[in-house]
Amino acid sequence: MEQGRGGDRWRPPRGRHRLPAEVVARSQRERLLEAAVRIVAEKGFAAMTIGDLTKQAGVSRTTFYELFDDKEQCFLAAYDNTVDVLVRRVTAAYESQGSWPERAAAGLAALLELLAEEPALARLSLVDIGNAGPTAQRRYRAAVQRLTPLFDEGRDYASGGRGLPANTSRMAIGGVTGLISDELLAGRAEQLPGLLSDVVFATLVPYIGPDAAAREVERLTR
Amino acid sequence: MIEKEQLPAGREDLAEPLVAHSQRERILVAMAGSCADKGYSATTIADICEPAGVSRATFYELFKDKEDCFHAAMEVSLADAMGRILSVYSPDKPWATMVRDAASEFLDLLASRPAFARMALVEAPATGERAFELYASGKRVLQSLLDRGREDPVEEEAIPSSAGRAALSGAEALIVGQILAGNAERLRELLPDIVYITTVPYLGQDEALRQSREAEKLLEAGPLGPPPGG
Fold first, then answer.
1. Nearest Cα to Cα of residue A83 among A8, A143, A155
2. A83, B44, B69, B143: which has the fewest C-beta neighbours closer than 10 Å?
3. What is the CATH number of the domain that holds B48?
4. How far is CA B90 from CA A192, B94, B105, B116, B197, in A?
5. Going residue by residue through chain B (230 aa), what tens digit of pLDDT does each one get?
6. Is ipTM strictly over 0.85?
7. Quick one: B87 and B180 in the same domain?
8. CB neighbour burial string for B96-111, b if at least 16 within 10 angstroms, e if fewer
């Protein structure tokens, strides 16, 4: 590391310029992504301004425009980041051992806990995405698709060849995300883990029917 | 055409609301169209006035602002949808048949007006509190229809009270996916899947699959006619 050679060099280096440019850009980028999550959770995508973002992240407007074209691009980057974390955590929990209902319940429990810990992220991922235009909505759908295996294995688990509708997993996912969004909209993010039995039932019922689903819910979530 | 000056004062009062009524309708159609093309937030008053063939002055005589106009378009859509869904209601009909017929009417309505479908199900939930409330009130009506399935099964206590709401969200996700993919005119094809997801929590898999296959037969037979065997 370069040592200061004169009195004027003893102060902490005017840091930014000493760090490699990409490192600075990366942390500025990360601060902007965090800011986007917080601001969107607070006032919604439509009301968020570039000024809000730069102020909250402590970067200049010039820096913002070096990193992003507009607020939508910044929001989408924040969104992708969020979804990556969510999907990785849920998938890890789902890939544990056990029967499909057990693993599905583990994945859903991880999802609810993560969302409850990070209400801002939760709102961003599931509710506010609809405010950010068609591109954002397509990203949302792509993100949700990544959770499809968790649901679609139910098809093999259910006594196969029962001719379940082709869209069963899409509808099951829609049911689960719908129940979660309703809680978030009602401002009950912290209570999400309490929704486990409802979302497990919604996941299982199209694949194994209401009686078996109710029995599994009883066994897995009490 | 009668010139304004030729009309007695009283007639003038009568004539203007009539004109305004159709202008109003054209504006609402243009609003839905623009929402479908570029989304609500990017829609300008000019985007609405031009296809509607009305002046800005006329727009502002009828609506306070863009948001007011959007709410009016939502209210009209909601009233149409509720009218169609309630038309299938009959105390003698089995619940599953009623769900199927209501879903069929709803899908037909959405398919016949893709722009309104997109506005009501894609734009409205994300366009402010009042629009969301209108969207949510429509959803509550559908949900109460689904919740009536709870009266039938024996072990109803084991089924969470959210089952109908989850089923409705599942059906909605499928419909919105189809709309976003630009296939709104083919929404009717989703009927068998929607019948399955909405009935399975209460009727069980075998009966829900049977109902779903019935719905498929109806589709193959063409537009919903009078029920076979009356």
1. A143
2. B44
3. 1.10.10
4. 38, 9, 14, 27, 22
5. 444 444 444 444 445 555 667 899 999 999 999 988 888 888 999 999 999 999 999 999 999 999 999 999 999 999 999 999 989 888 888 999 999 999 999 999 999 999 999 999 988 887 778 888 999 999 998 998 888 887 654 555 688 999 999 999 999 999 998 998 889 999 999 999 999 999 999 999 999 999 999 999 988 886 554 444 43
6. no
7. yes
8. bbbbbbbbbbbbbbbb
- Boundaries of domain holding B115: 69-220
Which residue among A137, A165, A167 sits closest to B180, beta carbon to beta carbon? A137
Same domain, B105 and B8: no
Q: Closest Cα of chain A to B80: distance in Å?
A: 24
CATH architecture of A71-221: Orthogonal Bundle (1.10)
**Taking the model in full, what pTM does it have?**
0.81
Domain end, chosen from B33, B63, B93, is at B63
H/E stretch holding A190 reads none
**Taking CB atoms and an 8 Å limit, are B169 and A162 in contact across chains?**
no
Query: How far apart, in whole angstroms, are the C-alpha atoms of residue A67 and residue A76?
Result: 13
Candidates B202, B38, B166; CA nearest to A197 is: B166
B43 and B84, same domain (yes or no): no
Residue A19 near chain B (CB below 8 Å)? no
On whether residue B226 sits in a domain, the answer given is no
| Count of domains observed in chain B | 2
Residues in A touching B201 (Cβ below 8 Å): 201, 205, 210
In a domain, B12, yes or no: yes
Answer yes or no: is B150 within a domain: yes
